[in-house]
Amino acid sequence: MTTPLRITVWNEFRHERSNPEVGRIYPDGIHEALAGPLREAGHAVRTATLDEPDHGLGGPVLDETDVLLWWGHKAHAEVEGATVDRIQARVLQGMGLIPLHSAHFSKIFKRLMGTSCDLKWREADERERLWVVAPGHPIVAGLPERIELEREEMYGEHFDIPAPDELVLVSWFQGGEVFRSGCCFRRGMGRIFYFRPGHETYPTYHEPLIQQVILNAVRWAAPVDAARPRRGNSEPLEPLG
Amino acid sequence: MTTPLRITVWNEFRHERSNPEVGRIYPDGIHEALAGPLREAGHAVRTATLDEPDHGLGGPVLDETDVLLWWGHKAHAEVEGATVDRIQARVLQGMGLIPLHSAHFSKIFKRLMGTSCDLKWREADERERLWVVAPGHPIVAGLPERIELEREEMYGEHFDIPAPDELVLVSWFQGGEVFRSGCCFRRGMGRIFYFRPGHETYPTYHEPLIQQVILNAVRWAAPVDAARPRRGNSEPLEPLG
Amino acid sequence: MTTPLRITVWNEFRHERSNPEVGRIYPDGIHEALAGPLREAGHAVRTATLDEPDHGLGGPVLDETDVLLWWGHKAHAEVEGATVDRIQARVLQGMGLIPLHSAHFSKIFKRLMGTSCDLKWREADERERLWVVAPGHPIVAGLPERIELEREEMYGEHFDIPAPDELVLVSWFQGGEVFRSGCCFRRGMGRIFYFRPGHETYPTYHEPLIQQVILNAVRWAAPVDAARPRRGNSEPLEPLG
Amino acid sequence: MTTPLRITVWNEFRHERSNPEVGRIYPDGIHEALAGPLREAGHAVRTATLDEPDHGLGGPVLDETDVLLWWGHKAHAEVEGATVDRIQARVLQGMGLIPLHSAHFSKIFKRLMGTSCDLKWREADERERLWVVAPGHPIVAGLPERIELEREEMYGEHFDIPAPDELVLVSWFQGGEVFRSGCCFRRGMGRIFYFRPGHETYPTYHEPLIQQVILNAVRWAAPVDAARPRRGNSEPLEPLG
Q: Is this prediction's pTM over 0.90?
């Protein structure tokens, strides 16, 4: 790999503590399951959770974050508006953001999309198969042409998002639906990768291929050392008149 | 033309009343200058302004609007959040939206884009030349390959918007800048066309070619009689297990 | 509807004459099955087939065509290069093109895409379900959120095309694959809509919802009365030096 | 930097030998001027020119090339069709391609675009200013918000290309035109970056900022170690019937 990145993995961290089934799959929380492979790859990884002060994102944390992963589900409403404002500002300045699964309904994802981000869903222990539709994309480097998950929650179209800047993965579900499961967006100087899988009652984030997608996505979403555009009132560069 | 559309032209309507120079150019307000050619084309046009109750958008107005034009500048902050919420909901349901010129900083445009929508600007009586970069697009039907405006305010890149779904016009400015001046976006079932020209101290909306772009854009942004997608919990369409 | 369009339906017209099963489904050829609903909608429809002189596209036919539908399968190689050149030129000038099903491998579609247009396939009498992923798009006006075809040939990803300018429909297949089945492209001043269904051994083009998509697509792909851009050596519009 | 890439710089290499003015600017040919900074950055760089056997691209050269730069102008017609076929195949397999300046009219670029790639032009020693319109893009890493070239050939819209997958740079010209000067395309598994500047009578490729764009573009266009999608007849992955 190349330069290590400063990654913050944010997790709601409620299901793991209230639902023993989830606690068995993710005994240290989804955030630790996500953080592990990123640490092994050499990145500098912090975690942050909803019930910490400032949701774990106070002080310099966001300023020191290159890429932020976000998993939330039942407590989106408890995330403070001021935190959402700060994350949005950081994305526009270049921080990468990777909303996972039910984070489609997070305040920050809806803020950055401008749409409802609504979809179909069903919890029925069914098979999901993610197909690569952009095989040369860095987010699917080293992956086979499809990923199979024996049991997952179904998400179905229409997914109310702006057309992705790049569509990388499309899911097939056993019950008859399809879904745009790997979607790239650019907002300001930041990059966003929405990645569908990861319902809390399945061991999805322990799957090596899923971990590989996330590793690739983190690298793809990392900030570029770009010159900041100047904005506001500007003198002419050419003679007028 | 085909079916008449129900159009609402919204205008801040402050500059015209406080600045005599603007009042001379637009004696009945920018909204009436915009409404005129749309009425002549056979559309059913209402106007609405900031200082009316509910900003003129109360009751059934928005529900009865196919396409909403929006001109605002110095009083964006006075537009009520509840109005912004209702406009956003209507766009996602299919209403067209045409933010004009300084409406790049309107609450509703920023809400739908998810970005800062910031840019460079300069008021220096300089020449603008809008080049068509998508010559087969319906929004430039019947137009020449460029539009010249002898005097306009400059807007320059970087314009902080998501990449447009379709880029139709790019402006050249005498002072040395360029700008993405005609930008199509789809959000939910609605269509948005941002159109740059129209600083209040110039007679831009009296220009026939500018009026033609707006007429075309209104037609392009009109709602399609689309089946509403179902969302939420969904039964399987295929046998599971 | 609005102005009638001049439509040419091109068909290879070989399977219908050599395979009795196909002949039973399309006794007058696939071209007549496609032409019927377009004629009923008021359009001026011609047909043209491979074995006619100049493939039925000689003389003024292409110049007098607003939108060209194309169905071909086993005889792509027999289409003359000069015909492909003329179709490409007409698309760049604004003629709409609707390649259907196995026309993904036609010379004209590959020419306009620049890629191999290869894909997975299987003939196994399986179910296809096309999901609308762009519900406000004019090509799906009046349609439900999905179309079901009880038996079709499977086409699976990766479909080697450039990313569509707009992705409208994604197919689910019973055997486990997905496919980008309704894809919009703009090339020059022309519009192209690739539409997947229509294997010759199934009565797909007799399905009213499939006919509705094609009717909508023809309207969407119709040429816009656009000013032709000037190209080549150009005098400056501003003083130099 | 990271892993060195295998780069081939292809140049027509005719102007430098026939026009003393060009020979003075590029005494070893445009290819050597382009190759120098890429070698200094640690890449493994070959050059190849039109008048070599197989245009310098025979044997294993293309198979051993990660990214191919292409400069051509007056002798596009002399490039053999078989060479164009082989380059196209390699791009679809993942090789990066960077067509420069007048290579907009090269056979390989037109083949991959499917359009005429025509444009306006003028040789009048005028000023060009390239504005960054995608400031977070890796191709503009480390660059200021604009690049100024005191004298260049003008290229003007409409540039007849498919809408770029990402638009990175837009040029302003002194004579009144604009141009999409930095355009990203994906075709198959390969990435293409068209970069406008570089008329042979100006020292454009000696400009450090232009060299930086090319260095960044080479890195961006490098192949990803992607699993090759399987195509053709495919067995079902799920039980049918």
A: yes
